[in-house]
Protein: Probable membrane transporter protein
Amino acid sequence: MDIFIFIFIILVASILQTSTGFGFSILATPFLLLLFKPMEAIQINLILSLVISFALIIKIKKDIDYGILKRFIIGSTSGLPIGIMIFLVLDLKNLMLGISLIILGLTLLLILKFRITQTRKKDIVVGGLSGMLTSSIGMPGPPLLLYFSGTDTDKSKLRGTTLAFYLFIYLMSLIIQVIFTGTNKTIWISSMYALPIVFIGLFLGQILFKSINQNFFRIFTYIILLFTGIYMLIEGWK
Structure:
């Protein structure tokens, strides 16, 4: 049964990542934590997310805002070491509660039509928060999604810039995770088995992306975030 759940999680998360630019980590991490140890779940997520980013980067490079990308990377260098320290001191329940509160808080701000003016300094701060969340829980998406949604960024630019940033942040976070927490065969074997499912998800996600308009894209984002946040909150309180 666990293998079928694993396949379903990877397939749906891959489709979301390809079609929205942020869905894999937000959806996959909470549910992988139910099947694997925290270190395993986070590293599997990082490996597969890195593969997805590499696979898509050539097709979406025209949508990347390189100025914002550079500032995100600069900011993330301060957030990465903070994130791994958080991971080392938190247990699974607190980890899930923390993730759920972050996701639900983000969703509330989006529904309330949170707006923010983009600046260079804010780009760096958002990059730092994203770096912290990536090395701690393997989930860089929430700060980026809130920031881009708050500035009404076009869905193509959102997807392109976040995927480009993920190439850097996932690789650095995986290296940091392996150095500070180690790794094991389960992580790499599970990731290898998941690769065919990921590529199926990439294909389906590209088709879906072409048919999503901006309004549906926003509503769909709210639904995914609410579902994931509430589910994790329930699991964290058990």
Residues 74 and 124 are 6 Å apart (CA to CA). The two ends are 22 Å apart (CA to CA). The chain has a mean pLDDT of 83. DSSP finds ten helices and no strands in the chain.
